[in-house]
Fold these 2 entries.
Entry 1:
Amino acid sequence: MTPVELEALSLSLQVAALATLASLPFAIAIAYALARGRFPGRALADAVVHMPLVLPPVVVGYFLLLLFGTRGPIGHWLDSVLGIRLIFTMKGAALASAVMSFPLMVRAIRLALDAVDPGLEEAASTLGARPLDTFRSVTLPLMLPGILSGAVVAFAASLGEFGATITFVSNIEGETRTLPLAIFTATQSPGGEAIAGRLVLIAFALAIAMLMLSEALARRVARAIGR
Amino acid sequence: MSGAPRLDVAVRRKLGTFDLDVAFTSGGGATALFGPSGAGKSSVANAIAGILSPDDGHVRLDGASLFDRARGVDVPVHARAVGYVFQDARLFPHLTVAKNLRFGLVRARDRPQYAAFDDVVDLLALRPLLDRRPRGLSGGERQRVALGRALLGQPRLLILDEPLASLDAGHRGEILPYLTGLRDAYAIPMVYVSHTIDEVVRLATHVVLLAQGRVVATGPVHEIFSRADLRAHTGRRFEASSIVDATVVAHRPDWQLTDVALGASTLSVPAVDAPPGTRLRLRIRAREVALAHSEPKDSSIGGRLPGRIAEIVEREGPYAEVRVDVGGASVWALVTRHSVGRLALAVDMPIWCLIKTVALDNRLVGPLPPA
């Protein structure tokens, strides 16, 4: 692989990994609230979480610019208080990927949560486990297959994220130019077809490796929780 | 029963069209909540454990309030120290048997420990299962693990909600001795939810009889199940039976029989593994008892008890139930009304109760629950 290809690949993996890991705790919390919570506005919260699935990615990118740009309410606060700048950076690319793949992750985790027998949680509480203890020692381990598949789906979706990323953080080599953006760039430049072709092959290999890895992981987790 | 009750329950709750209003107390030992499905047994058990919150009432255990609507007390489930054995075991599938057993144990570190891990494992014969996962266990094994797990949580009260209902008859017989062993090894109050007379008779000291969300009667097991006026609740015609307590007198190993004293008479039952002097509880089905004016010494019937007729109750169809006082104990006989007339049976008349020894199998004879 050429240094450019290597860079695009490694950047893609970093962005996807960061997006997946950073959104996982939020996805678990929100899936739990949506599945088990009884609060006003739950239907609205459900709709908001699913927005990125139905909106054009460019629109999501536009909203991210409004909110997380240096003059946006959240972006300004992050920049001035924490010194974190998201716009035009790799972290911003991860945010765009995370938001776009968030509904997929929440859905997978929620399905897993629905499959956990509440009777087991009742049993845990009669054995002296407080609610948080019950969640950590019974609910969470039993949700593990769903959490894993949610993470895999989100990771894969992040690898392919294009519209929101290019709108929010632009297309900066070495910073925000992930594999899809690199392929797009190559197709836009004269004589770039060969470069694009090689990048597409890399994307293929990556996808197949991902599928095999997730299968192996899923088998191990299923064994670990006694299914 | 002495002094203040250990368990004091009053539960009122409306669940749709079902209206639950149940109150009872227990002095310790095993209390059975007995009644048909839909009577509200499990709801009462859940209210005691804190899984279900009543609209009104109270739950007190050894003087402490676990729930009291009027005083705004509602101790959360995890802080009640009420152990619960569920009908469907509810073992944690991701943990080994050993880790399931220790789940409650490690969370009860700040309470007095009366049940030790090794003792419970041996009592319930769980040693060979410790490294296995719940998935591979049989139904009976699962319930044994659930029993041990609940007990190791060092509960102040143990609720058993139809723990044998999901097992087939063979496995039921296999688990019962473990339940009685556990009850005798640890002096912990138990609430036993069941709709099976055999289990209640073997396990419980007291019965709270429930029907349609109300208490029909409460009292000692042998009293409740012997009362003719409760027959509609304690069993259909052919389930009607007497619960009597007897004492082991002698063994006859060559015949595999045990002689027991029942009131002033002696009765043979299939061999029981208990030393002379042991108190036993017998359930004698009324339909297995015949009546005669004289002792039929030339018949094969092994149980021949002289007594006096105390009561004759006409039943629907061709049947009548006759209660015979055999030196302090009551034995019911189910006969036809035709027989009552033919033998000219009347109250206060001397009579012989005839019971086939083969009718007293080991499911109907067991150790007496401690008072």
Entry 2:
Amino acid sequence: MIAPEWTSAIGVAVALSFALGAPLNTARYAVFTRLSNHLARLGCTPVQADDEPLEPLGAEIMVFGMGRVGVGAFDGLATCRGDRILGADRNERIVRMNAAEGRQMIRGDALDTEFWERLQLDQRIDLVVLAMDDHTANLEAVRRVKDYLPNTRIAAIASLPTTSGNSKRQVSTSPATCMARLARVLPTMPVICSTAKVLVRNARWEVHRQDTRPTDLATSPSHWFTLGHRELRNTFHPNTNCGRHFQTGEIRTSASMDP
Amino acid sequence: MRETETHGPPEAAHNATGAQLTVDLTLILIRFIFGFGANTVKLPPLVGYLVAGFVLRAFGYEVTDAIELLADVGVLLLLFGIGLKLRLTTLARPAVWAGASIHAATTTALISGLLLGLGALGLPLAAGLSGQQAALVGFAFSFSSTVCAVKALEERNEATSLRGRLAVGILVVQDIFAVVFLTLTVETPRSIWAIPVVIGVPAAKSVYGWLLDRAGHGELLLLLGLALAVAVGAESFSEVGLKPDLGALLVGLTQANHSRASELASTLLGFKDILLIGFFLSIALEGTPGFPEIGVALVLLLILPPKAAGFVWLTSRFRFRVRTAWHMSVTLATSSEFGLSVAVVSVN
């Protein structure tokens, strides 16, 4: 029906459109910022329900990933901050389940830029807890939080390479409980970040402060707190005598969380 | 390679395989170098693969069976993955079905008008086009690339966000148009088994689910995904003269509600991406263009900005925020490999 030359022509055009489209895609956020004033005129109201901006419902704390650790942190924080906490999970089922249990929930993926843009962010949010089960997701989410809430404190689950084999001796305290206990202390403290390790499950946990910043979580809090367990302390921070850092009363409280 | 193995003497087959292997290994290296190069200068690696294709073509390299195979399986897995994540309610949204239809009709008209106009002015190739032929080229070029869009969305974790779902919905509607077109125009021998296959493949849904429950978390799961997409979906469809891509999409769709659908999708992700490198290479190696073809290709590229703008306008008409419309439209600002196959079919 058409001349065979057209296949080559369309082939070249398709290939070039890929080559041009890919960098445009990389730049689309930057380009949108430039064009947004002109594009705004196109808008029609009211917008579709699932495209409406999200209200963070007056939240001051957001917890991403409502698994064991997330729920523990949520409930722990709820005891002192009441209804100022908002839980977020990308799984619809988990959102419904938690909402049914009376937690303030929102559906959203912390990695998804769209979610952050829809969120009418309030700089009132002063703590973001990243408790997703995927470690790389948490790391990536730290970047999003830094982009959209530059002054917010971040608490995140940290992973740690572990070779410790003597887990039998250790008393079992779930990371969720630890997180909950830690969370009760956190809001009263002047300092910032907690990182809970969940890789070492069922281990004995304690809180210690880590002044050296982990390189992969290159945020800029004044201090980091790590939920770690005693046996691993020295291997984890070979250059730090962690015990020396248990200085304030609050931290001591959570440090003695072993049963 | 397959030919040699079946007909040639054993030693010749062995040598041919050896030579082929060396060539393919060199290819992997070249692809890596170009992909890495693109990444270094902050361009998406796929630009590198395309450039690798262009360079290889300049040296007289042609598409091999191996590349074709990689490309085909990659695209099948991509469609299977789309099926796994697709919600049919998305397709039912007016912004998707009406948006895609209006857009396809307008773009087709626009491109064919442009080509006829330029043909009258004496642009080579376009000069001899009849109205119907111009419409055909316009139709082929109105599609957006599923592969590029899905890759772009996955890069930013946007595949399940609203803009991602809208974009994928529109792509699926476009694919349906392409399938309908190909079904109506191409005289492939369709067997009487086509109807039982179309009914039977989705009907065996619970069998796939049962297998999925028992496939573990490792390479067996990957293998099951591959088997479902390629063997069950694609092969059964192409056996009866239907489009294999559609089969893969359909089998994926049957498992969209399975609790392990997202695990399966992420297991296939990296593997699929590796195979798609073959796809980008084969796109860049397609045909041997002379200057007139390149000229026409450049003219066709002019249509991309209005095409994207059309999507922005249309989507915001359906009461989506401009921001959503913009991001969705930019991912669709390419032209499609499906358009290419429509063109290939129309030539024959």
